[in-house]
Design goal:
The protein is mostly helical. The termini are far apart. The chain is flat, with a radius of gyration of 16 Å.
Length: about 80
């Protein structure tokens, strides 16, 4: 996964905003949570240990969400 710095450089080359690089096709600009992108930028400036802890917490939350979604999907079948 590219770092935020890398995404900024890529966006600069193509003369677009980072949000244009990461948004899914068909989504309009209002649907992109730009505050999350700003938080990612700030997280990228943290010390390695702090950044690692936050990323682990985010991974856990995402895994929990996926598990809930999968269980709900299986129960609806």
């Amino acid at each position: 996964m590219p770092t935020l710095t890398t995404l900024e450089k890529i966006a600069g080359v193509f003369e677009v905003d980072i949000s244009q690089l990461v948004k899914k096709p068909g989504k309009n600009d209002e649907e992109i949570n730009l505050s999350i992108l700003e938080k990612v930028r700030l997280i990228d400036t943290l010390e390695k240990e702090e950044k690692g802890c936050l990323l682990k917490m985010i991974d856990i939350a995402i895994a929990k969400k996926r598990m809930k979604d999968n269980l709900a999907s299986m129960m609806n079948e």
